[in-house]
Amino acid sequence: MQFDVDLYARSQANLRLLKSRLPTGSVEDLAREVLIRLNRPAAQKLAQNPDTDRIEAFCEALLSDDDQAGAMFIQEVRRAGASVEVIYLRYLADAACQLGRWWDEDRVSFAEVTRGTSRLYAIMHAMRHQVPITAPVTSKSAHFVSVPGETHTLGVRMAADLFRRDGWDVTLLLGKTHDEIVEEIGQSQAIVIGMSAAGGHALDALSRLVVALRLEKPDAALFVSGQILETDAETVSLLDIDGMAHDFETAQALIECHWDNVSARRNSLF
């Protein structure tokens, strides 16, 4: 499977538009989220290491005026035989570490590092369907989450109860911090994640959570519901999520359809 150039371009365009609608502090939070999540300890487990010059060349491509340079660099690495794991855990992770170091040392500006992290995220997003499937689906399971800081949780509680009635094993995460949610889901086998937000006030927290979960669980499908879709549906759609549901029936149809597709794909491999 080749690098999805169209998905990369769409992710880039959506990220630029999203950032134009968020305050500067929130944009900085998204940049740091990318650097933190990509530069995690798991990146030290592979023996195949691109040398420092290669990583610096990749970083320069990410920061260049050419919107496609970083993506083309990774496409060449992929064509040369590098696995998805090596690209994720060595190239992307090492580049995140290098960009973070340059930012801390004031070698790159805020505008440059947000440009570079946006491109890193878009590259990752364009490759998410290449992440290997490691186990067959055995039971319907999902995580339903209220975004950090959200106090209106009746809707997500009701949705969890209704899905459980239909045979789903639903883990409900309420009143958790951003890091607690990401850590718990990151350590789980979750491939369906439903997020609830009650209005535009939750947009910053939702954006940061989506970015973090895309990086921690690239094989998971992300769905959003709640009152935020009545006020900010267009902005939420820029997050490149897998579905938006204004009501329970829509959420049920979207998630059941996704589960059937993933189950068929996984079970055909085992």
TrEMBL record:
Which GO MF term does the entry hold, naming one? cobalamin binding
Q: Which Gene3D superfamilies match?
A: Cobalamin-binding domain
A Pfam family recorded for this sequence: B12-binding
B12-binding domain boundaries:
139-265
Note the PROSITE patterns from the entry.
B12_BINDING
| Superkingdom in the source lineage | Bacteria
**Name of this protein:** B12-binding domain-containing protein
